Amino acid sequence: MTRLLMGTAVLALSAGVASAEYTLHILHTNDMHSRIESINRFDSTCDAEGEAEGKCFGGVARVKTAIDAKKAELAGQNVIVLDAGDPFQGSLFYTTYKGAAEAEFMEQMGYDAMAVGNHEFDDGPAGLSAFVDTVSFPVISGNLDMSGEALLAGKVDDHLVLEVGGQKIGIVSALAVDTVETSSPGENVIFEDEITALTADVATLEGEGVDKVIALTHVGMNKDLAIAAAVPGLDVVIGGHSHTLMSNDDGETPAYPTMVEGVPVAQAYAYTKYLGHLIVTFDDDGNVTAATGDPIVLDASVTPDAAFLARIAEMGAPIEEMKTRVVAESAATIEGSRDVCRAMECPMGSLIADAMLDRVKDQGIEIAIQNGGGIRASIDAGPVTMGEVLTVLPFQNTLSTFEVPGAAIVAALENGVGQIEDGAGRFPQVAGMTYAFDASAPAGARVSDVMVGGAPIDVVKVYGVVSNNYVRNGGDGYAMFVDAAKAYDFGPDLADVTAEYLAAQGPFAPYTDGRISVK
Q1: Is the Cα dihedral 371, 374, 379, 383 positive or negative?
Q2: 119-162 pLDDT per residue, tens
Q3: Domain 20-314 = CATH 3.60.21.10
């Protein structure tokens, strides 16, 4: 499968006969993050009023409608449905049912395959194992050696082959190797370099006579582009993890698909807001000759599937009281989008860090650090419900207090801004301190002007720090905190702390105050 694309006429002449084309429609989702119910424009749960006003998007009932409608429209054509990982984590449905809700609805949507995402390990290997046991479609990841993990051995294949319209379609997959830092796969799940593993799996499929190969990945857009350029024989990349919006109608987003040496790369944002639809045409040698399409926005024009809505209401009944309980009020939107909170000081990050520090300030704690990746949504103006707070902070993280020298704090900040170009979740939102960074400098040498309590940080002095238990235990690359002194990881739930702090403020006025400077 060469990446040198020739016109079909040239191909026909070189072959001496007419070239037979094969067109495949790929419907795809990624990073649904437990948005079982519909969402508002802030990616949080939409309410009945929003639905009545036509302001809601997505939710699995709309995804079901959209998939069914496309399949009906394309009846008799070649269609597959893929998910690029992370249906887990992000709403009270996951907190309550631990993947069972996602499995039930995805099973009925008609997926042909799903990639393992990093958040499928949030409850350890057991959470992924239970999901795989529940669904009938294959869940794959080619760079994971799970043979040493009893709960997963033999359950997740490296790759698969689908028979579609008389043709063999190979699907290979890879999961970001930093999942050991962003989730909890455990010591028995071994990761291999993504490109190395994908190259081997494509070669295996080619050896079996498969000449159309799709990479279904959960590694992020930048790595997807590198994979498209580096893996021989790969025809298409369908990705996730970076929540990238791709569109041909918005000049500020990457084109859908983005072509890399003749390989189309596609992703469909996140949170059930879009259904990707990539149309790929192959010649009879398995070469891509055309790739077109666009994500389909699942707005109010898409009627949610009635049976799904009834089941969602049934499953949601036990958590409705908690979700709808008003805990505070906000005078304006509290910005918590990943684009902002993983790149600079954001109002939600400042709020959460201040809430953390306020809760433990009488314990001699001076600094708060919250990873931007732990912030999952914004909150709009008006009454704030506990459901909204839990959508922002869905991970059931607890407050962790500990002591480290100033040098570890600086190292933590360097780690936090070390992957900013990839939108990594390790970006540090802070309280009790200020810092500056230069993203154009080499990673590890980006941070400057670190101040604690208005004074330059002392790299020798020991400081009291509050974070969440995930960061304190080395999540998102914060290994410098793992052996911290006087560590206590069993404080109150971060969502509860944030809700109580919000309530104490009266109508909360969102703010940033320059605690993080971008040079």
Answers
A1: negative
A2: 999 999 999 999 999 999 999 999 999 999 999 999 999 999 99
A3: yes
Other beta carbons less than 10 A from residue 448's beta carbon: 14
Question: Tell me, what amino acid is at 325?
Answer: R
Q: What is the residue extent of each domain of the chain?
A: 20-314, 327-518
Residue with tokens 């002449």: 13
Report the alpha-carbon distance of residue 367 to residue 190 in Å, rounded. Answer: 35
Kindly tell me the sign of the dihedral angle through the C-alpha atoms of 122, 125, 129, 135.
Answer: positive
Lookup: tokens for 439: 């993203």
336 contacts 373 by C-beta, under 8 angstroms: no
Helix pair 221-230, 194-207: axis angle to 10 deg: 40
**pTM exceeding 0.85:** no
Q: What are the tokens at 11?
A: 């191909």
The phi and psi torsions of 413 (rounded to 5 degrees) equal -65, -40
50 neighbors 382 (Cβ within 8 angstroms): no
Residues whose CB is less than 8 angstroms from the CB of residue 136 and which lie 6 or more positions away in sequence, other chains included: 107
Q: What is the 3-state secondary structure (H, E, C) of 329-340?
A: EECCCECCCHHH
Fold adopted by 327-518: 5'-nucleotidase;  domain 2 (3.90.780)
CA distance 491 to 376: 21
